[in-house]
Structures are given as C-alpha cells and as structure tokens.
Design a protein that fits this description.
With 734 residues, the protein is of the alpha/beta class. It is built from 28 helices and 21 strands. It has an eight-stranded mixed β-sheet with strand order 3-2-1-4-7-6-8-5, with helices on both faces. A seven-stranded parallel β-sheet has the order 11-10-9-12-13-14-15, sandwiched between helices. The chain has a six-stranded parallel β-sheet with strand order 18-17-16-19-20-21, with helices on both faces. Helix 14 (339-349) runs parallel beside helix 16 and helix 22 runs parallel beside helix 26. The longest helix has 19 residues, at 246-264. The N and C termini lie far apart (63 Å).
C-alpha cells in the first residue's frame, strides 16, 4: 500500500485544481496515491482529473455529488484510499516542495502515530505577507511522539483538516469521518484529537492555502452558522463520554467557544431573528459543558464569556455596540455625473425593483451586438413579460434596430432603469457608479474566449496593467456579478482566475454564436450581398487583434498583395478590433472594410476562411468548421507584452504562418484546407466549442429570466451532432 493517500475535493475550484494536483505530482517522494474528488463525470474538474489519470497511474479520481458537500467528498475519498496515512488538500491548497519527504522523515523518526500535525501558510490571494496560524499552537509540543494530554492546547479544533496527516487504520478503527454539513473541520478535528493515543508535530510548513478573494463560504450570512453549535456539541459530548480531564477539557472548551463567540459577535453572519436564538442556545451549551473550575480568559473576551454564561443577550449586544457600520456604504454611493443626476439616481434607488425590467449593454454602449443582443432577442420570444431597455452611446442611438427600446448612457432615463431593473446584462461592465441592489441579478456574458491574459492576471504585464487602471475598482465591478457565461471549460477556469468572485458560472455557451448553427444558406447569401462580396468570389476574413504596445490600428499585412498572391477570386473582409470601429473605412479594391458592421457573427457567416493572429474571433469562428489560418508575425512580442494562457503555436486551429510569403503560400498550395489542417481544427473545436450548440440564449433566458432550475435546462448537444451553417463556397487551389 502507498505511504500517503492525498485526497483533493474539487467542487468550486476547477480553475486552480491543476495547481494542487501539480504540487503533489512534483514531489520528490513518490510513494503516494492522489485522489481528486469531482462532482460528476463530464464536469470541468472531472475532465481535468481524468487527463491527469491518463498520464499518471497514481491519480485515481472518484466522484461525489455537490449535494454531499465538502464532508461527503472527503469521506468518499477516504473510502477509496489505500495509503497508510491520509492527507487532505482543498482545491485552493498546494504542497510545498519536499513536503511528502519531510512528512515521511518525521513519521519514520516518531514511529507510527495516530495524527501528525504540521504547520501551514495562509497566502493572501493578491498581495500581503503569508501567515502561519498553526505555528504558535505547535511551538510548545514535545519533540517526539506524545499523548494529547502532554499538549492540551492542541485540540484539533483550530487546525483545518489539511494541517495534519491521519493514520488510516486509526480512523477506521474509531469510525471517524467528517460530519455532514458546515464547520465539518471543527467536528472532525475535535473528535480525532479526543480519540488519538499518540500524536506528533512537524514544525515546518507543509501546505500553502490560498485565501480566496471572496473569502470562506462559511463566513457568508446564513442560517448555516447554527451548525457551528452542532459541531461544538458533538465534540463536547464526546469529551464528556470519555471523561476528559480538566487539563484537557478546559482548552478544548475555550477554543470551541472562542469560535462560537466570534460568530455571535458578528452581526452580518446571522439573520436578525436568529442572533438571539443562536446566543441562547450557545449559553445553554456553555452552562451544560463548562468544565469544573474553568476560568475564562481576561479582557473583553472574558466579559463575553460571562455574558454568555448568564444568557444576557441584551448586554452582549450592547457590548458589541453599534460600531460595525458597513464602511462599504461610502463606496456604494452612486457617482453619476452632475449633482442633479446623482440626486435623481438616489431617489430611484429608493423605489422598489421592477421585477419585469431588464437592462442590456454591449461593448460599453457601442450598439446592439454580441451576447446581450442575442439574449435580448430570445427574451422577447420566451419571456415577453420582461420589458427590455438597451443602453447605447449617443452616436449609436440612430443605429439601433427598429422596435428595440433603448436609452442613451448618462441620460436620466438610463440611470432610472439601472436603478430599478431586476436584470442587468452586459458583456463588459456597467459604469462605476451603478449600485448592486439586493434582489437584482447581474449577468456577465463576456465577449470571447481568453487566449490573452485578462483581469487580475494582467497585473504582471506593465503595459496592459497601466491601461487597465485600478484593479480594486475592477474587482468591485466583479462583485456585482451573479452569473458569468462560459463557452468552454478553459474559459470557466480562466475566468475564475482572472475575475475572482462569488458569481455562478453558466456553462451554456455564447448566445451570439447560436446563429452559427441556426443560419441557413439563404442567410449566408443575403449577408454576403449586404456586405458587398462579389458573387462567386472567395471571402477571406482578416481579423487581427489589438496590440497593447501600439497606438492606432495597423493591418500588419499588405492585404492587396495577399489577394494577388492568394488568387484572382479572393477578396478580404477586413475586421479590425472593436477599439477601431469608429474611424473611416479602410477598404479599397478587393478589400472590404467590415470593421463598422454591427454584427461580427454576420461577418463570420459571410467568410469562407479566417485569417487572424491572436484574436478571440478564432474560437467563435471554429464553430462554423471552416478553415482557419493563424498569422503570427510577432508571437514572441505579443506573449511578452500581453501574456497568454496557452501556447497557440503548439495548439493552433489550423496552419501557422509567420511571414506574408508563408501566408500566401498556405492559400496558394491549398494546405490551409488540407487533411492536416482539418485535424488541427477538429482538436481545437473539441476543446473550445464545447457548449456552443445553437441554444445558448434559450438556456440563459430560461435559467435567469424565467427562473427554471439548473436540472430543467436542456443539456448541450454533443459536438458530433451539431450542423454548422453552410459556407458560400469552398476554397480550392490547383
């Protein structure tokens, strides 16, 4: 059997799970089995774990439903384990280099012990010094193995499950498992220490725990805090049954009620009516299990102990005081321009939310486009009772489709609907001053699959970071999100890293890409005619991305020369990044400038092939299963200045050209559409077109606007069963 079984629950941390698994597999000590516990087959974490299992036989994934919670996941992992000792990692944890070798050496020196406690670091998610809260607890423990009575301050209550190694036979013998529900570490840790005969300590850091920006789920407001009293009662009852000595029961009692009082003194954690009930039950528990001769701590905490013992809730509440006013209130003051507008917005915020009002915006008001427009259109069909208002900049109001209600950004009406709407849908972000009202629902649709670094991941790239501005303000906007759309598991994982928050991922696909599966041949013909594509010609869409290290738009390619070299029937549809959609048209001759065209989806449908550098349009266009060529003339510079999430050159959607001559040759000799190119595109589509099947908008409307439960939403159609819109022509070169 292996020396260690390392159990890693993965629910809600798919974006960082690979870091945890990599930290284990990189250990110099290799006698272990690694057990990722995933929600169910087919989930992002399960797919990731399955890939690791294919590459390393020591990885054996198991599954536990989300409804079983953290406790159920850990218990499932325990049942599957074969190791002598069990270790638990959360998906946010990593083992430090040399951790398993250090544990093995310590266990060899102490002999078999029931529990080996060790130190851990809590690392701030952004910046700040790591802390080591276990160090003071373990500092005074004996050097060798010892009985728990020799170090009564080590109760297990204040140490998380991932700060110890547990002998599996000991846990099995005493039928020790994680109690269901919340605060499972408190119950498990306390019971383990009560039953342990021989323990030891390793006074060095073994695990690094990332403090998530959104904080621990346990600290969120809710009735689940009553379960802390259940865990405390479980441990105290166990101590009473064992007849624990006063020397041991005193520290255990004090540490448990330190946690209880911390919750009781935190008004935001418990609903108003539940605070008194929590306090009263805690007081009864305190009086029933208070050890003989127990003397509480001094200072303010000691006063809280005495008030709890006396059941004096009114006095306790007075002690807590009214000092905990939310400092965030000042940050939530609306900031629309102009005093009269600010006052108007504040008045609107006092009115009740309109449950049948939705506000949409795309690309900071650039018009009716992208995912918000697709959701808006589907909502008109499936949820006609929801009134919709699209926000646009003044110079785009004239271009809004007929029948679409809209408001100009900055106008009084725009602030009115923003204040009162139940639903707010955007593919970027609403203005800084928009308040997230309780009961409102914000949907972040995104507008592409991330190849380049996004969000807080940009912080180490100076050129991009300078343009991004305040990351604190960025994260304040992220905190408004309730839902975040994703079109593939790669995006889900990268959004979780780039935009840490408490929102829920909706892996429904991008609504704007629905048309790639619903458009007909007649639609394609009509769009080409509208764009001015000559009949019988081959349209190549050239869509370069923005360069953060440049000012202004440069095509990066002599398009006229490319047309001459590619063939006499070739025309180029030039689609610059949306940052440059307001300048004069750049089309001449066989170059058709479609930068200002409202719909990038129409442009994609009109094109017979795509040439791009690093634009996210390639991920959308891949849904059409038409040829894609990557023109990467400055890949090294781009990766150095912007940063990327994966090596596009190693996993391209088609041929890669690095010079104009190579690009022309790819079209001239037909290799852009060769079997090798199709094979690259198939692998790319399997990875990045996972959830786009033509029904994304419907899924969003049903889940968000109609409130249907997740299990009622239609599953994504398998990739092999989807039929993309037909191309107008097939490029053939002799």
């Amino acid at each position: 059997m292996p020396r260690f079984s390392i159990i890693v629950p993965s629910h809600g941390v798919a974006g960082r799970l690979s870091l945890a698994l990599d930290s284990v597999l990189a250990q110099s000590f290799g006698d272990f089995e690694l057990i990722p516990v995933c929600d169910a087959p087919g989930t992002p974490a399960a797919a990731l774990a399955a890939g690791y299992a294919e590459r390393d036989s020591r990885v054996t994934p198991v599954h536990s439903p989300p409804s079983a919670g953290l406790a159920g996941a850990r218990n499932t992992g325990m049942r599957a384990a074969h190791g002598v000792y069990l270790l638990f990692l959360d998906g946010d944890d990593t083992l430090v280099p040399g951790a398993l070798a250090a544990l093995d050496a310590r266990l060899t020196a102490t002999g078999d012990v029931d529990v080996l406690y060790f130190e851990h670091e809590r690392t701030p998610w952004w910046e700040g010094e790591p802390t080591n809260p276990a160090a003071p607890l373990l500092a005074k423990t004996p050097r060798g193995a010892f009985a728990p009575a020799e170090a009564p301050q080590v109760t297990g209550v204040r140490l998380p499950a991932w700060s110890a190694a547990y002998r599996r036979a000991f846990l099995t013998e005493h039928r020790l498992a994680f109690p269901d529900g919340h605060f499972t570490d408190v119950g498990f840790g306390g019971l383990v220490t009560l039953r342990a005969g021989r323990v030891a300590a390793l006074r060095s850091v073994v695990v690094r725990h990332l403090l998530r920006r959104q904080g621990s789920r346990l600290n969120l407001p809710g009735e689940h805090h009553a379960e802390l009293l259940d865990r405390a009662e479980l441990v105290l009852t166990g101590a009473a049954e064992l007849g624990l000595s006063a020397d041991r029961s005193g520290p255990l009692f004090e540490q448990l009620f330190g946690l209880v009082l911390k919750t009781a003194a935190h008004p935001a954690r418990l609903p108003g009516r539940r605070r008194r009930a929590f306090f009263r039950r805690a007081g009864k528990l305190y009086r029933r299990h208070r050890p003989a001769g127990f003397r509480g701590p001094g200072g303010s905490l000691g006063v809280q102990h005495r008030l709890l013992s006396a059941g004096a809730y009114t006095a306790f509440r007075a002690l807590r005081g009214a000092n905990r006013k939310a400092s965030a209130a000042a940050q939530r003051v609306p900031r629309p321009r102009g005093l009269r507008t600010r006052l108007f917005y504040r008045r609107q915020l006092r009115r009740r939310i309109d449950p049948n009002l939705a506000v949409y915006c795309a690309y900071w008001g650039r018009g009716y486009a992208c995912n918000p427009a697709a959701i808006h259109a589907k909502a008109a069909e499936l949820a006609p009772h929801v009134r919709s208002v699209f926000l646009v900049e003044p110079d785009q109001a004239h271009a809004m489709p007929k029948g679409v209600d809209h408001a100009v950004i900055g106008s009084r009406r725009s602030w009115q609907v923003l204040a009162r709407a139940k639903y707010l849908v955007n593919n970027a972000n609403f203005a800084e001053g928009v308040v997230k009202r309780q009961g409102s629902v914000h949907v972040q649709t995104q507008h592409g699959t991330p190849l380049k670094r996004m969000g807080v991941d940009q912080s180490t790239y100076p050129v991009v970071a300078a343009a991004t501005g305040s990351f604190t303000k960025l994260l304040g906007r992220v905190d408004r999100w309730d839902y975040n759309l994703s079109s593939n598991t790669h995006s889900t994982q990268m959004w979780e890293r780039a935009f840490p928050g408490r929102y829920e991922h909706l892996e429904y696909g991008y609504p704007r890409n629905d048309v790639f599966y619903t458009a007909t041949a007649e639609d394609v013909t009509r769009i080409r005619r509208e764009l001015g594509v000559p009949e019988g010609s081959t349209a190549v869409l050239y869509a370069p991305t923005h360069r953060d290290h440049r000012t202004g738009f440069e095509t990066g390619l002599d398009l006229e020369a490319f047309c001459e070299a590619a063939g006499e029937d070739v025309v180029v549809l030039l689609r610059a990044h949306y940052f440059y959609d307001r300048g004069p048209a750049r089309g001449t001759g066989r170059i058709i400038d479609v930068t200002g065209h409202r719909s990038s989806e129409d442009v994609c449908l009109a094109a017979d092939a795509l040439v791009t550098d690093y634009s996210s349009i390639m991920f959308d266009y891949a849904n059409l299963d038409r040829p894609i060529v990557v023109y990467a003339d400055d890949w090294d510079v781009y990766t150095e200045t912007r940063g990327v999430y994966f090596d596009l050159m190693a996993q391209p959607p088609g041929p890669v050209a690095r010079t104009p001559e190579e690009l022309a040759r790819v079209f001239r000799d037909g290799s852009y559409a060769s079997p090798a190119s199709e094979e690259l595109r198939a692998a790319f589509r399997a990875r990045f077109c996972q959830f786009d099947d033509g029904r994304a908008a419907e899924r969003v409307v049903r889940r968000v606007l109609l409130g249907e439960p997740p299990e009622a939403i239609e599953p994504v159609l398998p990739l092999a069963e989807r039929v993309p819109a037909p191309a107008a022509s097939t490029l053939v070169r002799s």
